[in-house]
Amino acid sequence: MKAVLSMIPQLIRASIENDMRTVESSALTILRKLKTEEPAISAEIAKALSYHGVGAAVTRSVGIDPPPTDRDTFMSLARVEEPNVIEPKIVLSEENSMLIDRFIKERSLAEKLLAAGVTPPTSLLLYGPPGVGKTFLTSLLSHKLGLPLITLDLASSISSYLGKTGQNLKKVIEYAQSAPSILFLDEFDAVAKRRDDPGDLGELKRIVNVLLKELENWPIQSIVVAATNHADMLDKAIWRRFDRAIEIGLPDLGARKALWLHYLGSYLNTIDEDFILVLAKVTEGKSAADISQLSERIIRQVIVDDIEPIQAVIYQLKSVSEDNKFNSLFAKTAKDILGKKVTQKTIANWLGISPSTLSHHINTNKEE
Fold first, then answer.
1. Per-residue pLDDT at 318 exceeds 70
2. Structural contact between residues 287 and 250, judged by C-beta atoms closer than 8 angstroms
């Protein structure tokens, strides 16, 4: 097994460089070394190599046909991914966690429901502001249910040619319905607009009608998940066609703390957990994507500048906030949560302000 692990960096380098000869030779070596201890994995590698050897799509080796293409450009109309081996990390509110767990459970017990004459859920509408985890949630469903994920970015699929958008969309829908899978319709509002929108094109109105019909008759074997940042733009009839509509809002305090711990915990283990709570409090209104991006900046700054983690945290948070408002909020929050763990002088040093200015911020907050 150690020999197999030592080959992974070479395999990754060859894949990035599109060096198929090295990829094939490395895969063959790994196949041989795993043949005795991991025969199933060895057989899967052999099957993938055999499909590639005859010029067929490698995904066919795991029962996934290649996606349809545009008739004129020959470009793929969707991206197809195998279910993630590692479970994607996503932090949801307690209510949304229960709703998603329920959806997964009902899908897992599809046969039992059908035997009782009840149809399992086949569609899910996710709505909320950008960066809250709608795409990650769809990857989680793919992982949990073991279904390939077909992603269609509707905004980039709209063609300027009359009738072309509808044709392309119908191709992808038929492809997703042909085998067990999850079809992810990102930026759903791009085509599922209200039919009473006076500025809309007749072509898009026809597409809404196609979508309504397809959603109503979606096959039990597959799932369709739609995501939108603009729920108010959707046609009213669209909402009724989905088994569930879940609003994914900005993370609450508990979720923000979990996100900071997830992104910073393993890298910056010198940061006290109470300080993480301070971070969660002062980043109210930030999305999961915001916290992920800030965490990457913080870690990079710690590594590159070789500074204390808290210095990097303060610097990066200030870069996305109004200095005076941030100083005031952070001063009061840090004092309330950290209490006697740190002195006011320490908090002032973190913020790069004088102790007297810090006292002013804290007292001003108390009066307010």
1. yes
2. yes
Question: Which pLDDT does position 367 carry in this prediction?
Answer: 47
User: Any residues with CB less than 8 A from the CB of 194 and at least 6 apart, and which?
Assistant: 200, 233, 234, 235, 236
Q: List the Cα angle 278/281/285 in 5-degree steps.
A: 145
Quick one: which of 181, 174, 203 has its CA closest to 190?
203
**Whole-number pLDDT of residue 284:** 92
Continuous segment of H or E residues that includes residue 276? helix 273-282
Mean of pLDDT values over 1-26: 81
Angstrom distance (rounded) from CA 270 to CA 253? 22
Q: Residues 193-197: contacts with CB within 8 Å, 24+ apart?
A: 193/233, 193/234, 193/235, 194/233, 194/234, 194/235, 194/236, 195/235, 195/237, 197/233
Locate 318 and state its tokens. 């200030």
Residue 139 confidence (pLDDT): 92
Q: Which of 15-29, 42-56, 117-131, 248-262 has the lowest mean pLDDT?
A: 42-56
CB 255 within 8 A of CB 91: yes
Please give the model's pTM, rounded to 2 decimal places: 0.80
- Other C-beta atoms closer than 10 Å to the C-beta of 13 total 13
Report the pLDDT value the prediction gives residue 16, as an integer from 0 to 100. 84
Q: Which of 286, 288, 312, 289 is nearest to 300 (CA)?
A: 312
All residues at 6 or more sequence positions from 51 whose CB lies less than 8 Å from its CB, including other chains: 57, 58, 60, 61
| First-to-final CA distance of the chain | 63
- Return the H-helix or E-strand segment holding 228: strand 223-228
Amino acid identity for residue 288 in this structure: A
User: What's the pLDDT score for residue 129?
Assistant: 92
Cβ pair 227, 134 in contact under 8 A: yes
Strand partners, 223: 182
Whether residue 165 contacts residue 205, with contact meaning beta carbons closer than 8 Å, is answered with no
| Higher-pLDDT residue of 308, 281 | 281
Q: What is the pLDDT of residues 119-134, one digit of tens each?
A: 999 999 999 999 999 9
- Going by C-alpha positions, the residue among 73, 85, 218 that lies closest to residue 160 is 73
Q: Within 13 Å, how many C-alpha atoms sit on residue 325's CB side? A: 7
